[in-house]
Specification:
Number of helices of chain A: 17
Strand content of chain B: 5-15%
Structural class of chain A: alpha/beta
Largest interface: A-B, 32 and 39 residues
Largest sheet of chain B: 6 strands, mixed
Shape of chain A: elongated
Order of helices and strands of chain A: HHEHEHEHHHHEHEHEEEHEHHHHHH
Oligomer: heterodimer
Largest sheet of chain A: 5 strands, parallel
Strand order of the largest sheet of chain B: 3-2-1-4-5-6
Number of helices of chain B: 20
């Protein structure tokens, strides 16, 4: 898929994603070794985006499993459509009657029905959820398991099982083995400590807020219409705000939003007035907002 | 190289980073994929396969630099140490080697060919059975350097050099050239000896580092809390954070096992209507474990402030284990500080509670007054789900202990647990009124060190709140 780490880096760049050497190395290794990647880091540093870009540059479809509290195997793997199955058997009652009409004895009738089992237990009645979809896929895919820390520990254990063998057993149908090993990306915001097993299985990547130079590059790449001068000012302000003691630090996506809104407002430079009116794009908590406004002159200082 | 990576992993483990055999294998396989060409890539590879906790990253970085400064930087350094290569002399020597087919000592060959990294390897293998693992102090560097250099047969090398010079002489080189060659070879020999010493020094640095890490952690965990220096306090914070995580992880595992319960007939029947009365899906009653409420009351007078600090940090790092945590501090007046914990991050809230809460920090501790005040204002908010975690030395400065107040509080709550940062031998001596308070408490524990604090809290989370539910 990739020949070298440099190639990974270049292709991410071409897809407008700035991947550091570390990121590229881990992606390269994941592709080579067929290992899942676990990405940890604060919200909004481009963890999910990385998976999306990966699917884009490898031209593999992206299958996404968003985790949340209460997510269980059923919702992640497959659901059996009992109702449909029941409805079919009801509707086909007459046909079934015909089928066993000429059976001389009960065991014969049972045998006849058993012969038709495939009709009752088939993929027809199975609706695949992301995990099964990724395993069943005819072509290789990128599987994104987003915010795994939100799911419960049992689910994590189950996921670990799937990720180590890339096969699942569906009691009604038997074992489904992956045709292609999917590229798996898991993301976590560190809301909860993940289990050692899962961490052991995965390649680990920690993405932190980007360095000023990298953030500037990202802004230039994603919001090309922003004037150079303004872009620099935005980066410097955002970096200073991140150094403050806030409840939620502004993410990269938020600084992009901020840059975009400044462009829409036709701002040429950052003056206190415009910053104050657009600050909500960047800082989302009431208390944080007050604090940043309180030291606005420091934030805007060159 | 694999050997070197395995050694590196061994040292990471000794620095208390958990690395499983499968991860070690991953690291070897992965580094084979990327090769050693680029140091950054190599580092990222090892980090991705070995380091799974962000907090281990700094340790990894430092150890990595001690191990793998090598390769490029070292290659450069060695070249410098060996002196400039004289291409003409080198050519002459190469010719000689090719023609004469001399029997030379291994080391002489190394010196002649002059590959820095190979010399490094030779020194390392020489060091392996020189007992380097006993290297601990700087004073031993000379001793071990000598020990390693004793592994090499210097007289053989001298002899080899003489023979080489003679052979060159026979080829009719003029004295000036000969002197240059001799000088060149001697310089290299010198440099090689220096490299041995450098190797031992680096080894010492590595050892000192890993010993240091472990020692600080072990020693600090057993040091009496009141004796900590400000510097140690800040190191302690990370130790306490580690402790909290350990307790929490173990708890998560337990909750997982608690999910199964009895059949929920109501939900199962209702769902079965969808399938014509056939119970296709079974619902189980989830046994609901109610999380306990916790109130901490901390003495924040000078003598026990450190203990309070770490207990508060531990409890608030574990707050998701409780349905509600409330905290009070007192010297003689008592004040609630919960609000600070809800507003600020834990560390700042603790600083505030220890210095900025609305109580007089400079008077003498008066437990009796604090308890009686507590019963006046807070008694109604107590219930049977609440546990009180009390921290103080019960040194009452001969004030009225008012033990009735604590008894009254005990009647309203699930239990009172008293942690005393003073050694057990001092209880009841002098102005200590611990024996008067102890009967109202469900249990009293000495808690002089972080190690003890961790044990008590762990015990509480896993046993105390389990009983009777």
């Amino acid at each position: 898929m990739f020949e070298s780490v440099e190639e990974v880096q270049q292709r991410f760049r071409d897809a407008r994603y700035i991947a550091s050497r570390r990121v590229s190395t881990v992606v390269f290794l994941a592709a080579r070794m067929g290992r899942p990647v676990l990405i940890e880091g604060p919200a909004g540093v481009g963890k999910t985006e990385l998976a999306k870009t990966l699917s884009e540059i490898t031209a593999r479809p992206l299958i996404r499993l968003q985790c949340y509290e209460g997510l269980d195997e059923g919702k992640a793997l497959y659901e059996w459509k009992y109702a449909k199955q029941l409805l079919y058997t009801q509707l086909l009652r007459d046909r079934i009657g015909e089928l066993i009409a000429d059976a001389p004895s009960l065991p014969d009738a049972v045998a006849k029905i058993a012969g038709q089992e495939d009709a009752f237990f088939s993929y027809r009645f199975l609706s695949p959820r992301p995990l099964l979809a990724a395993i069943q896929a005819e072509q290789p895919v990128v599987l994104l398991v987003d915010e795994i820390d939100k799911a419960e520990p049992e689910f994590e254990a189950f996921l670990l099982e799937v990720l180590s063998d890339f096969q699942v057993s569906v009691p009604e149908l038997g074992t489904v083995r992956a045709k292609h090993i999917p590229l798996v990306v898991l993301t976590s915001n560190n809301a909860r400590e993940l289990s050692d097993g899962l961490k052991r299985r995965c390649l680990h990547l920690f993405i932190d807020f980007p360095a000023p130079a990298d953030e500037l590059q990202i802004i230039r790449l994603k919001v090309p219409e922003v004037p150079e001068q303004l872009a620099r000012a935005v980066v410097s302000a955002v970096q200073k705000i991140r150094a403050m003691d806030l409840r939620k630090l502004p993410s990269v996506s938020e600084s992009l939003d901020w840059a975009r809104s400044l462009v829409i407002l036709n701002a040429r430079e950052l003056d206190p007035g415009i910053v104050e009116s657009t600050l909500t794009m960047l800082v989302k908590h009431e208390k944080d907002l007050e604090r940043v406004k309180g030291s606005l002159d420091k934030v805007l200082a060159e | 190289m694999d050997q070197r990576i395995l050694e590196f992993i061994g040292d990471l483990r000794r620095a208390e980073i958990r690395i499983s055999p499968s991860e070690a294998l991953d690291a070897l396989a992965a580094s084979a994929e990327v090769g050693l060409g680029d140091r950054e890539t190599f580092k990222a590879t090892l980090a991705a396969t070995l380091i799974k906790e962000f907090r281990d990253q700094p340790t990894f970085d430092r150890l990595f630099n001690l191990y793998f400064l090598d390769l490029e930087a070292l290659g450069e350094g060695l070249k410098k140490a060996l002196g400039p290569e004289d291409p003409r002399v080198q050519d002459l020597l190469d010719d000689l080697m090719a023609d004469e087919n001399m029997e030379l000592d291994e080391l002489t060959e190394l010196l002649m060919r002059g590959q820095g990294s190979e010399m490094e390897m030779a020194i390392r293998s020489g060091g392996q059975n020189a007992g380097l693992e006993r290297l601990m102090y700087f004073l031993q560097v000379g001793f071990f350097s000598r020990r390693i250099s004793d592994k090499f047969d210097w007289s053989a090398i001298e002899g080899d050099l003489e023979r080489i010079m003679k052979a060159l002489e026979q080829r009719g080189l003029d004295p000036g050239q000969l002197a240059r060659i001799r000088n060149y070879l001697e310089l290299r020999l010198e440099a090689f000896k220096r490299m041995i010493r450098q190797h031992v020094e680096r080894e010492l640095e590595r050892r000192a580092y890993r010993q240091g890490e472990k020692l600080t952690r072990e020693v600090l965990a057993d040091k009496p809390l009141f004796a900590l220096t400000p510097d140690e306090i800040s190191q302690m914070k990370s130790v306490v954070a580690r402790l909290a995580r350990k307790i929490k992880d173990a708890l998560a595992l337990r909750q997982r096992q608690e999910h199964k319960g009895r059949l929920d007939s109501r939900r199962t029947t209702r769902k079965s209507l969808q399938y014509g009365g056939v119970p296709m899906e079974i619902f189980l009653k989830r046994r609901h474990r109610e999380k306990p409420k916790l109130i901490t009351i901390c003495d924040v007078s000078d003598s026990v402030r450190n203990a309070s600090r770490f207990m508060l940090q531990l409890v608030w790092s574990l707050q998701e284990c409780f349905s509600r945590v409330r905290s009070y501090v007192f010297v003689s007046e008592i004040a609630e500080v919960t609000q600070a914990f809800n507003t600020y991050p834990v560390e700042r809230a603790i600083e505030w509670a220890l210095k900025g809460a609305p109580v007089d920090y400079h008077c003498r501790s008066d437990f009796g007054f604090a308890f009686s005040q507590f019963t006046k204002t807070e008694l109604d908010s107590l219930d049977r789900k609440t546990t009180i975690l009390m921290l103080g030395d019960a040194r009452n400065n001969y004030n009225d202990p008012q033990a009735w107040a604590l008894r009254l509080i005990r009647e309203r709550v699930k239990g009172i647990i008293w942690l005393n940062p003073e050694g057990q031998w001092g209880w009841g001596i002098g102005d200590s009124v611990m024996p008067l308070y102890a009967p109202s408490c469900d249990f009293v524990r000495e808690c002089r060190t972080i190690g003890q604090l961790g044990e008590v809290v762990d015990n509480l989370v896993h046993h105390w709140w389990r009983r009777g539910r």
